[in-house]
Each structure stands twice: as C-alpha cells, then as structure tokens.
Amino acid sequence: MRFSVSLAVATALVAIVANGQVLAFEAVATNNLHLRTGPGEQFPVEATIGHNDRVEVHGCLEGITWCDLNWGNLRGWAAADYIAYAGVSGVKVLPLVSKDELGIPIVNVETVDAVVPEFVGTVEKVDGVMTIVTPPQAVSAFVTEQSVETVYVQGEIVTGVVLPQTVPLYAVPESKYNFARVNGRNVLTESNSNKVVYIFP
C-alpha cells in the first residue's frame, strides 16, 4: 500500500510557517481513538489514542473527515470527529472549527492498491464519553473463540457510538451483552441496544 501526498497549505492563526512548511498544531482526542495507517476504516489500526491525549495535527482531508497526525512517536490517521481544538471560541471538534479561526492544512491523498470495503451503514455519535466496561473473563473467552464475518461501517468505532441496525449482533450466553465484528474488530454492545461498550484489542 502506497500513498502519494501533497499539501495545500491554508493560512492559519496558530500555524507556524518555517521554510515553507506548516508545522503541526496541537489538539486533543475526545475519546479513545484508533490511529490508522490510512484515512478510512479499511486501514489497519496502529494504536489506540487515549481519551484526552494530546496529538499534533499536520493536516486533514478536504471536508475535515480524517486527519494526519502524530501521537507521541507514532504518525497515522484518525477520525476528525473525535479530535478537538481549543480556540478563541471554545473547545470544538475539528469539523466545527471556523476556517477564520483555524485554517487547517488540506491533505490530498491518493491511495494505490487499497481495498475499499462495502459499508452497511453509518455509526451514530452520542454526547459524552462512555466509560469502558471490563467484560467478565467468560465473555471475553466466548467472543475470542467465535469466527464471524466482519462488516464495515462509516465512522470510527469508539466506545459510546451506536452501530447501524444493519450490523448483525450475536448473543453472548448468560450475559447482558451482544457482540459483533465491525471494521475488523470484535466489539461488545448492550443487549438492549446497539451501543458499543467495549472494543477488544
């Protein structure tokens, strides 16, 4: 998998220009957030950024959907809906930040030989951050032993989001959970809803 990347640099109040390059601006993850090798759910997860962890954003796709960033020594892509910037008008997730306040550099990415999955729906974001549950050992063992086909949805899978009704859920015996395999990861949901409460590593 290869990327051809070009930057269309926008003027920004907080961006520092040095030798023609725009340096990263600081932001924060609003939830536990996957750092991926590319801008989409079809790309492998490199690591999981912690809730409230600081990141350095180098730029985002047009429409501010995915952003190229550093988290510590790791560089990758994360969903812009879960990255917040503290500006003069308060703390806002990147897609809601005014262009006059922060001119986010636009990154054009051409992917070669990337597999594009068929998406079955879009996750629904809910306000607030869901506390991650710790599933009982029996639940974890059961889910780990299962082999079900993965489905793909639009939107980053983090705790607290609601999966589309089209995602098949499987009951976990003698527990209050269902599980599903979404975007290549096993997740637990509440038995009476499609809300994600735990993501298996």
Structural class: mainly beta
> Which CATH architecture of the largest domain?
Roll
Main pleated-sheet profile: 6 strands, antiparallel
Q: Specify the number of helices.
A: 1
Poorly predicted regions = 1-22
Describe this structure as you would to a colleague.
The protein has 201 residues and is mainly β. The chain has two domains: 2-112, SH3 Domains (SH3 type barrels); 137-199, no CATH class. Helices cover 4% and strands 42% of the residues. It has a six-stranded antiparallel β-sheet, with no helix packed on it. Strands 15-16-17-18 form a four-stranded antiparallel β-sheet, covered by helices on one side. Strands 1-12 form a two-stranded antiparallel sheet. A hairpin with a 5-residue loop joins strand 17 (185-190) and strand 18. The protein is elongated, with a radius of gyration of 18 Å. 32% of the residues are buried.
Could you give the topology of this structure?
Blueprint: E1 2-8, E2 17-18, E3 21-22, E4 25-29, E5 33-36, E6 45-49, E7 54-60, E8 66-71, E9 74-79, E10 83-87, E11 90-93, E12 106-112, E13 119-122, H1 137-145, E14 152-154, E15 170-171, E16 177-182, E17 185-190, E18 196-199
Parallel strand pairs: 13-14
Antiparallel strand pairs: 1-12, 2-3, 4-7, 4-10, 5-6, 7-8, 8-9, 10-11, 15-16, 16-17, 17-18
Summary?
It contains one helix and 18 strands.
Structural descriptors:
SH3 type barrels; 1 helix; 6-stranded antiparallel beta sheet; 201 residues; 4-stranded antiparallel beta sheet; 2 domains; mainly beta
